[in-house]
Amino acid sequence: MTKKIAIIGSGNIGLSLAKGLVKADFAQAGDITLTRRNIDHLQSFAAAGFKVSNQNKQAVIDAEVVILAVLPQQLNTVLDEIKPVIDPAKHLVISVISGVSCAAVREKLGDTVEVIRVMPNTAIAIGQSMTCMASDNASAQNIADVTRMFETVGSVVKINEDLMTSATALCACGIAFFLRAIRAASQGGVEIGFHADEALKMAVQTAKGAADLLLLHGTHPESEIDKVTSPKGCTIAGLNEMEHNGFSSSLIKGIKLSALKAGNLYTKEG
Questions:
Q1: Could you cite one Gene Ontology molecular function of this protein (predicted)?
Q2: What is the pTM for the complete model shown?
Q3: Which of 85, 114, 121, 129 is most buried by its number of CB atoms within 10 A?
Q4: What is the mean pLDDT of the chain?
């Protein structure tokens, strides 16, 4: 897709995506306009060949793909600003703004504008995002193009929009859940004799290895667990002790509560 792209509100997500698109040869830096009120923060990107601007309307006029990446409280102002120059026949609008539905964006920009809602997580900063995507009116071609766009910064799954709050709990909040599990493992490592820095390094790499086993082998966690557990062995003893203390059930309950909380927050916002 050799289209010109405008990223409106170039914070962490927008800048990470811009870098990913260029690194993956999906787009040239000169075809991407980054907007921000204070463009002094974008000087390194300007030096790398990106266009930088504090004029949202002009950036939209010059683009075919418009990525909305402002803070939720800034969105209505930005939509009002760009509405006069949005052309449904020309523009595809992508929103990465938490809790804002495709319908809410179309309500401001017009019913015929194609809108795709995208939710990356913080691992987008290292090109390892789990990105969830939904739309109720985008063409199959645009869905495919946006999937490839966000695959430059991680993995993508298309879901129904009513599952976006659930995806927030599993993928966005989930980063914190897995980090807390790694921290707990490293604290256990200190208890059994390792220095804190050693224990953390060992826990982090072990967690990464576990995740990569599933990704590369395409296997189920239990089949990989079976390879580590032997009869009357130390692994099964540790697993069972954790389960007796509610390891799996507490994680499941935490995800369910986060999803409930996210849904309530979004309802109040919207």
A1: pyrroline-5-carboxylate reductase activity
A2: 0.91
A3: 129
A4: 94
